[in-house]
Backbone:
């Protein structure tokens, strides 16, 4: 099997998705140290942004410690091999943010929409391509709709000019067969590259990424020590080790990744990034992974169970970006409890 | 025969048709024509059924009518590009325009906040749906304290977002953020929009986070409740979902990257906008609040500030 598998591009997301795990509080020095090690290990792409993408700084998603310009220009200045990527969610960031990121050194822009809303990114994809950027598009919460409908949305993104379209398992809810079915369908339907991004909420982070690679994904996302929203992403050092064992040469050196994961990234985690009870509920209830810390904060603030908040958010079919509804649900639950008590 | 000032509506899509249905109920103005470019559009057919003259030759057709120059107000529910063309022609004829497109030829208006400041403007713009839903709250808080920053999150049903909105979502975020500053009087504004495809469709929700210098929770809660009640007079489905939530940033200042650390209060306000179901379904509160605010604005421009307690 290994001979037939093409080497995927390795896209690190420690410095973007990982921002969620620490409330967007990396120091510039943290980022530079991690990026230096990733670059030394020869990963292909390194993403740097607020967890919710460019211009994500807000009460709704949290304020990062430093400005995007400080983070991106600092990382750009130390890269010798890897290309620099940034994330953008239409509705949060704008074309102007893409333009600035390009000036700071970003060469790949990743543009994400909910899995049914591809058409809202047309203006951003076209503008980014006109700027000469490499464009990868995300269809988030890809577990929510059937594969055929997902392919229709992916075709739109390809038609706008995306170089790659991702199956993005934002809730870490895809099962293994569901992952296989989606990647195979994308490969069959699209001329452009296919990517895979996921979360480890059901403990399938590495497994599903390996499946995606076997099915022909051209780009795979992962982060050191899984540093990402919810139970984290597919762990970069683990998936590289597994791919090497499978005889797939990723071109990435393992040891710098192990050193960086163990000595730099994991010690930065305040709340362990793992498939614990609350994180598991994200995958189980099909909820956007970055809701985790916000739900835990609201649970403390209003004296309700974080799991109840997450399940209710799943029932209300909340999508990525609707962090404001977490407090709304917590207040609702607290209100119902007080009414019962009275 | 009615002596109410006469108005016309350009644009026979969802927004224009919803506005027509609403304006037929008005005690203050009389819609006499609906103008489109597609004789087969549902909007023009509907206008005919409702006894309103349907013109399908666009703005030229309208201006060719003998009574055109007597129109008190023309509502434009077409597109930004079309409105730029219409605005010049209407201005030349001395006809006032209420613009529901993102063209923003004239000043932005949120009726409860700043309409009285633009009673003589030849052209006013209705900002955005999210702006109409959230700026009243920011403006009301600004009446009592210095607002350093205000941010809004508008969540709308996917089905209520038309092709124009989808093709230019940046227009929403940029225009709304600017209006939060100019009309809401926040020193810095930010706007986020989320499209949710849930079925059955979700009713429009808007969340406002204001960071202000001082906050007396009792006074600000009253101010917010009062302004919500004022908006609800023209948007019956506009309501507070929760009491405002107050959070003090005093022991520890708020740190926004790129700005000095600041002490203050965060006030969070959770709103719902249920549409009236006139032409558009009730979940489309985002469209309802635009047409309702436009109607209120047109009534005041046509009849003077005494028409309503705006």
Residues:
């Amino acid at each position: 099997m290994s001979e037939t598998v093409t080497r995927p591009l390795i896209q690190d997301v420690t410095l973007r998705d990982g921002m969620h795990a620490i409330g967007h509080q990396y120091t510039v020095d943290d980022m530079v140290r991690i990026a230096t090690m990733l670059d030394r290990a020869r990963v292909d792409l390194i993403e740097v942004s607020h967890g919710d993408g460019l211009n994500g700084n807000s009460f709704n998603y949290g304020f990062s410690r430093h400005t995007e310009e400080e983070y991106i220009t600092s990382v750009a200045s130390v890269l010798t091999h890897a290309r620099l990527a940034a994330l953008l969610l239409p509705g949060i960031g704008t074309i102007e943010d893409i333009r600035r990121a390009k000036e700071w050194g970003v060469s790949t822009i990743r543009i994400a929409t909910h899995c049914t809303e591809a058409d809202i990114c047309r203006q951003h994809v076209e503008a980014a391509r006109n700027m000469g950027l490499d464009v990868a598009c995300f269809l988030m919460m890809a577990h929510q709709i059937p594969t055929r409908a997902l392919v229709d949305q992916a075709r739109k993104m390809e038609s706008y000019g995306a170089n790659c379209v991702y199956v993005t398992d934002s809730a870490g809810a895809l099962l293994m067969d569901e992952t296989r079915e989606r990647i195979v369908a994308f490969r069959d339907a699209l001329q452009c590259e296919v990517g895979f991004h996921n979360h480890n909420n059901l403990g399938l982070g590495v497994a599903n990424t390996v499946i995606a690679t076997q099915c022909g994904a051209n780009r795979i996302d992962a982060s050191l020590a899984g540093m990402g929203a919810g139970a984290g992403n597919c762990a970069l050092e683990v998936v590289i080790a597994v791919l090497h064992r499978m005889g797939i040469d990723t071109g990435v050196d393992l040891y710098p990744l192990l050193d960086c994961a163990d000595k730099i990234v994991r010690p930065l985690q305040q709340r362990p990034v793992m498939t614990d009870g609350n994180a598991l509920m994200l995958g189980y209830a099909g909820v956007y992974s970055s809701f985790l810390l916000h739900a835990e904060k609201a649970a403390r603030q209003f004296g309700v169970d974080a799991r109840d908040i997450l399940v209710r958010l799943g029932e209300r079919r909340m999508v990525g970006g609707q962090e404001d509804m977490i407090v709304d649900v917590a207040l609702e639950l607290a209100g119902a409890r007080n009414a019962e008590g009275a | 025969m009615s002596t109410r000032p006469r108005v016309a509506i350009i644009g026979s899509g969802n927004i224009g048709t919803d506005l027509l249905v609403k304006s037929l109920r008005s005690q203050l103005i009389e819609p006499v024509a609906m103008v489109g470019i597609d004789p087969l559009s549902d909007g023009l057919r509907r206008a005919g059924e409702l006894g309103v003259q349907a013109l399908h030759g666009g703005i030229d057709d309208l201006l060719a009518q003998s009574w055109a120059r007597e129109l008190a107000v023309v509502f434009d529910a077409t597109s930004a590009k079309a409105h730029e063309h219409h605005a010049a022609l209407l201005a030349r004829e001395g006809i006032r325009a209420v613009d529901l497109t993102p063209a923003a030829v004239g000043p932005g208006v949120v009726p409860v906040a700043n309409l009285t400041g633009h009673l003589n403007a030849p052209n006013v713009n209705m900002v955005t749906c999210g702006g109409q839903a959230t700026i009243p709250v920011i403006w009301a808080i600004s009446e009592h304290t210095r607002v350093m920053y205000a941010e809004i999150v508008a969540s709308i049903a996917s089905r209520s977002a038309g092709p124009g909105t989808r093709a230019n979502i940046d227009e929403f975020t940029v225009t709304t953020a600017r209006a939060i500053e100019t009309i809401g009087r926040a020193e810095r504004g930010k706007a986020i929009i989320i499209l949710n495809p849930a079925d059955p469709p979700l009713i429009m929700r808007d969340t406002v986070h204001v960071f202000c210098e001082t906050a007396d929770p009792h006074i600000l809660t009253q101010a917010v409740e009062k302004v919500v009640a004022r908006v609800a007079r023209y948007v019956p489905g506009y309501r507070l979902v929760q009491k405002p939530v107050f959070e003090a940033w005093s022991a520890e200042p708020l740190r926004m990257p790129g700005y000095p650390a600041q002490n203050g209060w965060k006030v969070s306000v959770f709103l719902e906008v249920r549409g009236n179901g006139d032409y558009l379904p009730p979940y489309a509160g985002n469209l309802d609040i635009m047409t309702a605010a436009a109607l209120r604005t047109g009534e005041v421009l046509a009849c003077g500030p005494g028409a309503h307690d705006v």
